Amino acid sequence: MKLILGIESSCDETGVALYHSERGLLAHVLHTQVAMHSEYGGVVPELASRDHIRHVLPLIRAVAQKAGCQLQDVDAIAYTQGPGLSGALLVGASIACALAYALDVPAIGIHHLEGHLLSPLLSDPAPEFPFVALLVSGGHTQLMRVDGVGQYTLLGETLDDAAGEAFDKSAKLLGLSYPGGPELAKLAARGQPWRFKLPRPMLHSGDLDFSFSGLKTAVLTLTRQHTLDEQGLDEQTRADIAHAVQEAIVEVLVDKSLLALKQTGLKQLVVAGGVGANQRLRTQLDQAAGRRGFRVFYPDLEFCTDNGAMIAFAAALRLQQQEARRDYRFNVKPRWDLQQINYTS
Ligand code: KG4
Ligand code: ZN
User: Cβ < 6 Å from ligand 1: which residues?
Assistant: First the structure.
């Protein structure tokens, strides 16, 4: 199995990539729906599905052209089978399986989070197994122990909102556009560190679980208080609140990641998922880990958020261990526990 076409369509990004098992990533292309959804302040699932339909075939043609390949050269087609929006997932799954059938090659359903957590292995230097992975996306916040491809153990996770969700909801309360994470980070850079301190939920719980839902309530209270003030919610106050939100989320993520390394005795931490693009998180993690002799690995920025490369790459690693079947019946898994995909012990 040499050349793998990967298709990602779990949410609001259509990502397509061609990965070669010996030559590495040949090309990847992406269409983001951010502009379309921003009008509504969040992802509208039906619009997302329709947009994936519009873009997936042109993107497949574009990636083949960019890589200098023909579709007939493809040895397997990987697609995101879940978790995600069911309609959006169905677009990728049905295109992948139909194309695989037509080309007489296997179709492989990939777990979206497996794609994210293996994506730092696409970079150089890459971590070596075993490592701890901090998965921080719009829908998930998890600490996993990764002993190898397909060997994932959940160490802790959020009991309510995900870290990305906390960024996005707080950003919305501050009047920022969707997706709020990067916007909030930009605003936070102008914030004064001393002005507000927000709660750090479960910071001292002693376990590796998280809780972020209290944060948006605290932000709501602060924004309401200041809206009622005479001067209203001025620009500096918005920046100061954004700063406090980012600090609270980052501190909890850093502390729990260090605790996970301490508890497992492992030395490497991999950060994956959209929130991994946050510069403050990277700086704080690097500093804290460096002091204790740990090493932190991040995917390149373009592979932090959703993309097709991580799906093609995860399939390539899996195919080194598992035989691919030519079975074109497909189902999607909008909810799917990562530990269920373990296939080696
Ligand atoms: O992994 P991802 O692209 O999609 C999901 O699978 O959810 O993650 C998207 C999340 C969003 O919540 C977005 O606001 C957040 O990642 N995000 C960030 C940054 N870039 C993306 N959050 C904070 N700072 C950033 N720079
Ligand atoms: Zn994702």
Answer: 11, 137-139, 164, 167-168, 179-182, 185, 273-275, 277-278, 305-306
